[in-house]
Amino acid sequence: MKRYILSILLMLPLAVFAQDGRFEKANSLYINGEFQEAISAYNEIVQTGMESGNLYFNLGNAYYKNGELANAILNYERALLLKPHDKDIQYNLELAYSQTTDKIEDVGEFIISRWITEFRNKATSDFWAYVGIGCFILTLISAALFIYSRSVVVKKVGFYFGIIFLFHVIVTLSFAYKQKSKLINRDHAIVFSPSVTVKSSPDESGTEIFILHEGTKVKIINTLGTWKEIEMGNGNVGWIKEDAVTII
Where does residue 243 rank: exposed (0-12), middle (13-18), buried (19+ CB within 10 A)? Predict the structure, then answer.
């Protein structure tokens, strides 16, 4: 199925807002091409504390159509945190990044690590937690077979399956922890200044290292006063003022 930047997800799990019409109103504004009004309507929902991958996706689309690239990228990234497996979000995010000034080549990741990350991102933290709990229950059943069965064959089956299920418990719960940690400890940000000079130290007299432009994604690795130490995908590091970026 083709995916377009015009796409909008109309089936959000936001029952409360569906009942009072706020979400339908925002969708209608978007569909009618009133993107600035749609942005305001979606943000009203966000400001209540509600988080949803689909909500951020719609908001990102509205910002994109309104010509606000940095805000579009920010909300696509937030949507992807909540729905890391969503192909539509990934597609629109890649499309938005293709229009930014800075083209940062990421440092090559070990192929096995990349495979693990891609597999982990196919589901949310809740999904991996449920799978982990299921595997834990199966581990207990296998242990019971090993301990209480009088059959040697059944004991062997219980032992080996217990080991297998225990391994899956460790893996899936570690996946759940990693995915949850990404939501809680948000250490990436989007540059919002049209251009910002990255310094070698957290002060105005620091040596100018390089310049970043609006829409670029950076990793926050340290904070000192009103300065943020950032790391780029290519490994370059430096300091910028905190008001130049917005945390994802």
Answer: exposed
